Amino acid sequence: MAMTLRLLDDLGAKLTERARRVGRSKQELAIEAIRDALDRAELKVDDVLVELMDSDA
Description:
Helices cover 79% and strands 0% of the residues.
């Protein structure tokens, strides 16, 4: 699915500079950042579920 991502000017400039510096596309960096954020959020939910299961046991 195609999507247009609109960034604030300063964030877009930072992403452009980072992509240039690391030799990757802005799209690659954005996708990686989104995946990392989702993984971190998922880990937090899993931690809460484990705590709840432990306290109910």
